[in-house]
Specification:
alpha/beta; Rossmann fold; about 40% helix; NA-bd_OB-fold; DNA-binding; binds adenosine-5'-diphosphate; ATP-dep_DNA_helicase_RecG; isomerase; about 700 residues; 4 domains; ATP-dependent DNA helicase RecG; binds magnesium ion; seven-stranded mixed sheet
Length: about 700
């Protein structure tokens, strides 16, 4: 049970003044985490941290204020001058003065009653905003803040600036966050006192208050102790939660999975190629783990196209040899189908029976699959999380493979499988993850790496091209289509914001259709499952030659004879994503290329990213560069600008805290494995605050 102390933070944000259902939906868009469908809570607002601050501390007086400067002025109101009746184009002016000069406060489309209340004649007020001069006369158009001198404290001299989205005003968001911060109760401390002193950490509530009500601009920086404290908290919550999941997983009895090699060897013989050295090595590690009586928990890391699926299949074959069933879970339906397509023909030749189970299988077909899983007449099932969510029963599930692609946050999935039959677990990730991130996302997990590309792969030539040369590119693509090549054309998602109006996939489709006609296909996230499959099939079979796609669904899809990848607005993508997308080509034996279309002018970070892409194909190098560049520039969308899987912590600023958090977590749990001591109880609060509820539930006394 969650302690009642935290209730104020777990009530819906609509309980905050000024936040209705509509505002709540807008606020959800700026949250640094994916709510996964649950309602937004007051506590979620705490971790919406400022991007920057507006410094309003300068109070030079009217005469000394520089044009364009943000200043705060202490004024006496002289008189109001409403616009002449019926002429709304003339602004409402309020004249005021200080010791140094006069000023006109200027309002367009003003409400007289409101201004009379805010700026009563003869009163002392404080206003803050941008200083301007019209014909040499001081003025301020729509001051950002107005307060009576007696209430001047309410005016933020250092104002935090939060991420915004269309329709959400800074004021409304700031007010909501302010209320959320006020609702934070005084909590027992979960950090070690000496550690806090060493790092100049304040308490949790004080750190939050400092970040949201900075007194000077440095207070709101990620390098400030306040932010670092919260980052540490988040790391610690993550590490404790991972350790609990892991302990639970280990506690559940494993069983040795051994086999005589008959199916594994049949499979090996059925492969149209031989495994690379690193595939062999990874397979050997996995088979050795399986043979141990302990439960396996291993990460298989390998770049896109490095051949993880085959390794997983061989390992699943061993599980079947040992008399059990195996499951492969993919993050999306389309990827589940892709995996099945890779696996099924090979599996069939080794006498393995396969099936698929996603949200889309319905009716009789589904019923049949379910009963065959239950009676053991399916050896290997491929599916989405539907596999583990529903009342799917296996006759004897002994091995589960989770394909995470480039997602992070295995917590939930590990927890899900911890409930079941305690199958051995293999987690596959497609992006080579820097060591620090492996630690944050997976804790101390055993890792196998695929470092070689399968033999016969050709390097991918990568070029950058400004948008102005689009027509030239289209001409070259037309030639390539005439030669029988296949081309992916990626368009970024359209952000529903005026500022980032990007060419959407549909618009690009319309623009290219006159050129490519029937040979042009499109696939995007808003299409239905069956439509997506059909679009992919048509491209795979060569009925369409150019496939326009958004980034949501195509990652991981395998069309080995696709040779050109065009990425539009490449400057908007993060490095990991660019790398991931580029990996869709260069999978066959023909030379491939990748065209990064960009729009000038390029920022420094974008420039650097594109040149990294030109310089290297090594996923590990790219991952490290990505980490360095992250945060320096905006990635696509607000949610991706931080470190994936984290709300507060930013690896580029806080990685030094990570190992400390891991050691701390180990120490805490070694002394108090069920979190029952005083500090343990406080740690439970921490877990709730950072959404690690599922870890708390794993505690026996949870
Ligand atoms: P990943 O899942 O790591 O992105 P896949 O397992 O989907 O990669 O493999 C990508 C492609 O490479 C598949 O078409 C697969 O058949 C092929 N492949 C895998 N291993 C080898 C190998 N050792 N030699 C040649 N091709 C391979
Ligand atoms: Mg794969």
């Amino acid at each position: 049970m969650r302690p009642a102390l935290l209730d104020p933070l777990f009530s819906p944000i609509t309980t905050l003044a000024g936040v209705g259902a509509k505002m709540a939906a807008l606020i959800e868009r700026v949250l640094p985490l994916d709510l996964g469908g649950r309602e937004t809570r007051v506590g979620d607002l705490l971790f919406v941290l400022p991007n920057s601050v507006i410094d309003r501390r300068s109070r030079p007086g009217i005469a000394n204020a520089i044009d364009g400067q943000i200043v705060t002025l202490d004024l006496t109101i002289d008189r109001h001058q409403p616009p002449p009746r019926g002429n709304r184009s003339v602004p409402y002016r309020v004249y005021a003065h200080d010791d140094t000069d006069d000023i006109a406060l200027t309002f367009f489309h003003a409400h007289a009653a409101y201004l009379e209340k805010q700026l009563p004649e003869g009163e002392q007020v404080v206003v803050s905003g941008r200083m301007e001069r019209f014909n040499g006369r001081p003025s301020m158009v729509h001051p950002d803040h107005i307060a009576l001198a007696s209430e001047a404290e309410s005016l933020p001299l250092v104002e935090p600036v939060y991420p915004l989205t269309a329709g959400l005003s800074a004021k409304v968001l700031r007010r909501a966050i302010g209320q959320a911060v006020e609702r934070v109760p005084t909590l027992p401390e979960w950090l070690d006192a000496a550690f806090m002193r060493k790092h100049s950490f304040a308490s949790f509530d004080a750190a939050l208050a400092r970040l949201h009500n900075p007194e000077n601009p440095l207070d709101a920086s990620p390098e400030n102790p306040a932010w670092r404290r919260l980052a540490y908290d988040e790391f610690l919550a993550g590490q404790v939660s991972l350790a609990l999941v892991r302990a639970k997983v280990r506690r559940l009895s494993g069983r040795p999975l051994a086999g005589d090699g008959r199916i594994v060897e049949k499979l090996r013989a059925a492969l149209p190629y031989s495994l690379t050295g690193s595939q062999e090595a990874a397979l050997a590690e996995i088979l050795a783990d399986l043979a141990e009586p302990d439960r396996m928990l291993r990460l298989l890391q390998g770049d896109v196209g490095s051949g993880k699926t085959v390794v997983a299949l061989m390992a699943m074959a061993r599980a079947v040899e040992a008399g059990g069933q195996a499951a492969l879970m993919a993050p999306t339906e389309i990827l589940a189908r892709q995996h099945l397509a890779t696996i099924a023909p090979l599996a069939a030749r080794a006498g393995l029976r396969t099936a698929i189970l996603t949200g889309r299988e319905k009716g009789r077909e589904r019923g049949e699959t379910l009963s065959r899983l239950a009676d053991g007449s399916i050896d290997i099932v491929v599916g989405t999380h539907a596999l583990f969510q529903e009342a799917v029963t296996f006759r004897n599930l002994v091995f589960a493979v989770v394909d995470e692609q480039h997602r992070f946050g295995v917590h939930q999935r590990l927890a899900i499988t911890a409930k079941g039959d305690a199958p051995d677990m293999l987690v596959m990730t497609a992006t080579p993850i820097p060591r620090t991130l492996v630690l944050t996302a997976f804790g101390d997990m055993d890792t196998s790496k695929l470092t070689e590309k399968p033999a016969g792969r050709q390097p991918i030539r990568t070029v950058t091209l400004p948008m102005e040369r689009l027509s030239e590119l289209v001409g070259r693509i037309r030639d390539a289509v005439a030669e029988g090549q296949k081309i992916y054309w990626i368009c970024p998602l359209v952000e529903e914001s005026e500022e980032v109006k990007l060419m959407s996939a549909e618009e690009r489709f319309a623009a290219l259709q006159p050129v490519f006609g029937d040979q042009l296909g499109i696939v995007h996230g808003r299409m239905k499952g069956a439509e997506k499959d059909e679009a992919m099939r048509a491209f795979k079979d060569g009925e369409t030659r150019v496939l326009i796609a958004t980034t949501v669904i195509e990652v991981g899809v395998d069309v080995p004879d696709a040779t050109i990848m065009v990425i539009e607005h490449a400057e908007r993508f993060g490095l990991a994503q660019l790398h991931q997308l580029r990996g869709r080509v260069g999978r066959g034996s023909k030379p491939s290329s990748c065209v990064l279309l960009y729009k000038d002018p390029l920022g420094e970070t974008a420039k650097r990213r594109l040149s990294v892409m030109r310089e290297t194909e090594d996923g590990f190098v790219i991952a490290e560069e990505d980490l360095k560049l992250r945060g320096e520039g905006e990635l696509l969308g607000t949610r991706q600008s931080g470190t994936p899987g984290f709300q507060v912590a930013r690896i580029e600023f806080h990685s030094d805290l990570l190992e400390a958090a891991r050691d701390d977590a180990r120490l805490i749990l070694s002394r108090d494995p069920e979190l029952q001591s005083e500090r343990g109880e406080a740690i439970r609060l921490l877990l709730y605050l950072f959404g690690r509820d599922e870890a708390v539930r794993l505690l026996r006394a949870g």
